């Protein structure tokens, strides 16, 4: 080359050296940060995908933390309920022992009553003091808020209602429509006659709770037969009424409870006492109510109905007048409340696991048809001195069933909802992190190779640039 104003080889070598230096710096940056993408220009599409995945990773991590925290909240509540269960077992033991009236002095009964009062006081204290970071767990604060139950023509349609789960949109409500599709029935047998007729009669009356043998003198009036059956209805679960007059007089034997597990059996042990109307000659069974809740058939046992769906779950007891009316319908609303836990990375109603936790105070445990635990306190209707031991026992057992049912729901929620969610979220966290790493993280094997190559090329291009800059000096030889 004989031109010196423009050293083209030098320009070429300088450009190549600059490119090699850029590659060297890029390799050094990736090796020092561990990231393949450090700025948007490294990989614009990859940067967008990586940032989206980073957001998802953070959301999944937050959901895992939320589920773990929810598990701790439920564990606190379940631990308190375990003690409530133990106290209820102790309470039933006191009631059962106190029923042995002939073997106990009044002082012993009074001592048992003092223990019962202490247990009931402790139950109320547990209900009001169990909390997690100031949030009360067992006093009804985490129960659902309902409306529409005390209005309308069927205001007394339900005698018990516990909403266990409901998806309620923010600022909205969920309507619940209860329709009777099959009438609840008691078991029923009929004896036709105004008296037992000639000759003494002994009959055996059996029901859900037990059996009683009754003996009647000749021509005992139908009203006296009914009175004798009713005197033992607490023992047998069978009551009797008289209808009609004269030749049309009837004694109607009914089970005191509704449902397929309630029955009436009347058999003549001596003499003739013929009943009709049963599934067999001497026995009849009741019928469970048929109910749909928001169009979904509930599982019924007598007047008790349970429903389990993703959107709404509840346990309810129907009033007998409502349950025996095929045209009956009741609408109420879930307006909010409950314990809502966000356990999914994408927020919304489908990401929320909702759980209702009812109060376990003595004023709420039990049933309206029987009474509540508070009625066992001194001075109340079912205190030990009242002698209502059977009723007291049924109240305690109903309370135990409610508490054990709540513990079961909490346990199922921990295991099947929270536990499964945590496991699934952890897998999602791993896979999303792996995807983000594949896009953004540097491969050190590749980058060290790139670094070595860039170092060699920088050195060689630097040497080439030096040679290109020295080449124009050869022009001086033309002046000799």
Keywords:
8 helices; elongated; alpha+beta; Immunoglobulin-like; 5-stranded antiparallel β-sheet; 4-stranded antiparallel β-sheet; 480 residues
Topology:
Layout: H1 8-33, H2 44-98, H3 106-129, E1 131-132, E2 135-136, E3 144-147, E4 158-166, E5 174-182, E6 186-192, E7 201-206, E8 211-216, H4 222-231, H5 233-236, E9 238-243, E10 250-258, E11 263-270, E12 283-285, E13 290-293, E14 296-297, E15 299-301, E16 304-308, E17 312-318, H6 320-323, E18 329-337, E19 339-342, E20 352-355, E21 366-367, E22 371-372, H7 389-440, H8 444-470
Antiparallel strand pairs: 1-2, 3-18, 4-17, 5-13, 5-18, 6-10, 7-8, 7-11, 9-10, 11-12, 13-14, 15-16, 16-17, 19-20, 21-22
Helix pairs in contact: 1-8, 2-3, 2-7
Give structural notes.
This protein has a domain at 186-285: Sandwich (Immunoglobulin-like). The strands form 7 sheets. A 5-stranded antiparallel sheet has the order 3-18-5-13-14, with no helix packed on it. It has helices at 8-33, 44-98, 106-129, 222-231, 233-236, 320-323, 389-440, 444-470, and strands spanning 131-132, 135-136, 144-147, 158-166, 174-182, 186-192, 201-206, 211-216, 238-243, 250-258, 263-270, 283-285, 290-293, 296-297, 299-301, 304-308, 312-318, 329-337, 339-342, 352-355, 366-367, 371-372. By secondary structure, the protein is α+β, with helices and mostly antiparallel strands. The mean pLDDT is 88.
């Amino acid at each position: 080359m004989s031109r010196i104003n423009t050293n083209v080889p030098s320009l070429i070598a300088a450009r190549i050296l600059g490119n090699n230096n850029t590659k060297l710096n890029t390799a050094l940056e990736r090796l020092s940060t561990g990231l393949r993408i450090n700025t948007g220009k490294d990989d614009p599409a990859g940067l967008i995908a990586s940032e989206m995945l980073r957001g998802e990773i953070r959301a999944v991590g937050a959901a895992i933390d939320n589920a773990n925290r929810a598990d701790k909240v439920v564990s606190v509540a379940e631990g308190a309920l375990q003690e409530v269960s133990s106290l209820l077992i102790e309470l039933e033991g006191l009631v059962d022992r106190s029923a042995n009236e002939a073997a106990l002095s009044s002082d012993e009964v009074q001592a048992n009553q003092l223990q019962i009062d202490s247990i009931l006081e402790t139950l109320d204290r547990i209900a009001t003091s169990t909390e997690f970071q100031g949030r009360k767990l067992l006093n009804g604060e985490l129960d659902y808020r309902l409306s529409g139950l005390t209005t309308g023509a069927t205001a007394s349609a339900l005698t018990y209602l516990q909403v266990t789960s409901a998806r309620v949109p923010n600022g909205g409500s969920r309507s619940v429509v209860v329709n009777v599709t099959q009438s609840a029935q008691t078991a029923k047998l009929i004896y036709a006659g105004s008296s037992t007729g000639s000759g003494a009669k002994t009959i055996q009356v059996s029901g859900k709770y037990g059996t009683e043998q009754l003996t009647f003198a000749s021509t005992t009036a139908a009203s006296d037969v009914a009175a004798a059956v009713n005197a033992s209805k607490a023992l047998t679960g069978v009551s009797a009424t008289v209808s009609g007059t004269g030749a049309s007089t009837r004694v109607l034997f009914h089970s005191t409870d509704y449902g397929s597990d309630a029955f009436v059996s009347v058999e003549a042990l001596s003499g003739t006492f013929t009943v009709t109307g049963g599934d067999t000659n001497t026995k009849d069974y009741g019928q469970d109510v048929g109910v749909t809740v928001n169009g979904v058939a509930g599982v019924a046992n007598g007047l008790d109905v349970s429903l389990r769906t993703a959107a709404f779950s509840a346990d309810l007891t129907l009033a007998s007048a409502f349950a025996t009316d095929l045209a009956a319908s009741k609408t109420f609303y879930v307006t909010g409340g409950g314990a809502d836990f966000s356990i999914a990375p994408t927020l919304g109603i489908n990401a929320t696991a909702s759980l209702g936790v009812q109060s376990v105070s003595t004023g709420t445990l039990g049933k309206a048809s029987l009474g509540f635990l508070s009625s066992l306190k001194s001075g109340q209707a079912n205190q030990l001195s009242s002698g209502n031991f059977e009723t007291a026992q049924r109240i305690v057992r109903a309370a135990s069933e409610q508490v054990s049912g709540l513990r079961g729901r909490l346990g199922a929620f921990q295991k099947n909802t929270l536990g499964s969610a945590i496991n699934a979220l952890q897998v999602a966290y791993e896979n999303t992190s792996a995807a983000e790493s594949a896009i953004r993280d540097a491969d050190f094997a590749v980058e060290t190779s790139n670094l070595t190559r860039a170092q060699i090329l920088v050195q060689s291009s630097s040497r080439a640039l030096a040679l290109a800059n020295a080449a124009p000096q050869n022009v001086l030889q033309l002046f000799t």
